Queue: 3 jobs
Job 1
Amino acid sequence: MYQRLIPTILGLLVLAIAPQQLVADTTANTPTEAYLAYHQALQRGHHERALWPYMTTEAREDFESRFTPELRNRMFFMMKASSPRNIEVADVRIENGRATLELVPADPGNRTVGTAHMEQEDGEWKVVDVVWQQR
């Protein structure tokens, strides 16, 4: 009896959890939360479309206008490769619906720093651009 019950329970748990994992959660209350969700999507994603829920409409349109459909996925992987895997938000400045985040790698041996610009769009914080550079 228990042998049939365990797979059924596991199946129900998967059905209960899976839909939540398939939907991007873009309802971040702060620029830090929104950026960390974007960064996680970048690190876990396999295509530039993984970032669209976290970017402003203007940033997405700019990306699409700069790169042909054939080059967009390559650019996504270049963005992914140039971004440290684990980061921390060191400073946040907010003014008039715009935010600037200073980003640092969690690995102290990594000598890059980043800056993310964000804006509120439809009540949510979205990424405008992110730049990483060597210190």
Note: DSSP finds four helices and four strands in the chain.
Job 2
Amino acid sequence: MRLSRALRGWHGLCHLSLKSPIHPRKENHHEIRNSDAQQPVCRLPGAVRLHPWRHAGVSKLAMRKITWISCALMLACTTTQSSTMASPVLSDNPVRSALDRAVDQAARDLFRNSCHVGLSVVVREGSSSYFYNYGSISRSKPQLPTRQNIYELASVTKTFTATLAAQAVAEGRMEPDRDFQTYLPGRYTNLSWQGKPMTLRTLLTHRSGMPRDIPDTDALFAENNYATRPIHMLALFQGFGRDRFLSALHEVKLRSEPGTNEAYSNAGFLVVGLGLEQIYGKPFETLVRERITQPQGMTSTGFTIAAADRTRLVSGYDRDRRSVPYRPQSAGAAWGLYATPQDMAKYLRLQLDSRDPAISVSHDPLVGSADNGEAMAWNLGLDNDQRMLWHGGGSFGMSSQVVLYPGQHQGMVLLANDACEGTESALKNMAESIHQHLQLSP
């Protein structure tokens, strides 16, 4: 059909610029594209590089109609998803500097998977912080995230717990290889393996022999049912506060000799939190506030969200794009913190401060070496011969990643409101890609 042939040749008729009223100029939105063009252009599948007026047998009047139809289709594709390509994704990245371009390229790659919803990126270089946002805070209400939106940090919380533990070591209140029972309220002689105790070192490197969770979640993870797991876990942890955890801790049997096998354990970090409470005589939440967030000016980071701030909380989604609930209240020292990108920029500043003795302690290897090992919660490795530390997190509907390059005084935080398959690793890859692009930039 002549009209349909001409419609396929609409390319070049309509372009959305940054001044388009659809994307207010002050927000500096742009769309992620599969081309290298700098101007935001919404392209439809099948577009060809032919002058639209040259399609044989099509009048100028018909082409004017085609032009308006094409423009309407172009506008529609900014808010709807094509079955053959990912939807354009809004962003506040101005795409001007080498850093802007590095982040934008990495974000384009990430959003080729349409399971992703929203993303906030924080880059710390030297004494400066840079913020980038992509996508939406919700599938049902498209709205670009900002640096003030609140995300679940999930297991990135463990790095906060490790920082407190490093402060305790630096102050002489804790020792890495002392029997950790001595730091707990009451006697827990069951927390040893044939006389060999678990220690701060083994707890912070997931080698303590502790189960993954208390109460036990092994059966839920064995089911591998992402649709029902959040509901069942929330029911399991309902009302399971500090007192019940302490009581259940008496019944725990270590699953391996401390220091031998690596097995991820949220329960182990909750035990570290209990030890910190005991030596400082304050609730764990208070310790985080008084010793980390308050001194750093992180006013929107905490274990609870005030009613007035709940509108800033992004919605989370699972790998099947379902809306899912937030983490259980008892997640605590293992995976319970909420934070904003704005606050996490300040956290990067803290973690990159080599003058802080506690930071040095927390980044030193506890297992292996600085090139390939584990520190206090942090994973250690090399990226093109440059030292790198990282820790990720994942909850029912959110993913997070913090990556540090201490030698370059550079760090990144990446927060996503999805738990799609592989998101946590994809965020780490994204950080590495940004870092590599910057290393190659003149």
Note: Residues 1-85 have pLDDT under 50 and may be disordered.
Job 3
Amino acid sequence: MRLSGLRSTLQDRRTPVPPSAPSTVPSSAPSSVPRQARVPAPGHPSAAPAASASDPLTPQQIALLRASVAAVSPQAGELTVYFYAILFARYPAVRELFPVDLDVQRDRLLRGLLRIVDLVDDPDNLVRFCTHLGRDHRKFGALSGHYPAVGECLLASLERYAGPAWTPELAQIWTTAYGLVAQVMSKAAEDDALLGPAVWYAEITRHVHRGHGIAEITVQPETPYPYLAGQYASMETPWAPRAWRYYSPAHAPRPDGSLTFHVRAVHGGQVSPALVEQAAAGDMVRLGPAQGGMTLDPDSGRPLVCVAGGTGLAPIRALVEHAARTGSERQTNVFVGARTAMQLYGLDDMLRMSQRHHWLSVRAAVSDERIAGLEGTLPQVLAEFGPWYRHEAYLSGPVDMVTQAAYTLLRQGVPQQRIHHDPFDVPALEAALLPRRMAAHLAAG
């Protein structure tokens, strides 16, 4: 879709702030939604949260918060459906902020709640996580006035599905917790607005099919797009408005400002199939701000071990290219994995890079074929060539692979703080699952 079409399809959406008095629920809303929703009075358990960053939760309150999440988890799917139903019924104006298909969005809500609850006793990382969310939500058109509406409907949903476990004390705990989150997110968005735009328009200048449902797509942003090697960007296309997906540039920043992404078409996906099969030079997309902490520490001289599965090779390649440009010459071991030898995407390119740089070693792993020297899953091959306790580790690919590789590295003595990963389904939120999975692995080990 060309520029003129994109401007109307992917326009900057300035959705009105929800009104102080909600509208009547439409007749098409689920029967379980109250016919007339009222804004809760201050002090009511489901009132819009208001809290100060100076109001920490006690250990007992944190325990109650986590217990309430455990109580509603068997009905998590129903809870998110109900949440969005009452949110759109009470505040119809916010519907324009969300994609038509809400399946991914519901999943993101759950993961976000999990992550916040995981971090509720870790204030520094909680603030860091919510700051990233606040900045990223600018691209949706979210405004500070939307947060009370979301909080009101979230607490109403929790109250409905927690049943007898929901008490005035628990309501106040959730009110305080959400108020802190909303405060940090809102402030982060306001600060970020002073530094740069919420989105960048970019034109596709090159589209190359690489087989196995993968395309390399190069875009040229209209204005400079700031990012660091190893970070990722969210992308919105004209074929699926408001549906944002995350892709990582496969290189360090270029002088001309262009970006190349590796995109695999996901069966049944809303965004990637169109990018791979329909997109062409001249089409326009929008990019959200760069995110992710999987970047090289310029002050560290530790050797590197990098593990990449599928198109997760993109950020790993960017890190290697950045290391080559800066002349660091840190010993770097890269492991590239796939199910079959034919699916070892990008291996030849990495091998050519290893021929140019004596400090770079590249190895492949194939899990579903018996090939001498290549057989095994990435975590298996990683364990075989270890130990890695002196290394800085960077992992990118499917969540299960990242989890297993991280577990292998931990068992070999690599500290958690030196294991970097940005899962790419829903990066910041997908990571919510990793601490739980890691704990399960360690307990089983």
Note: The longest helix spans residues 168-193.
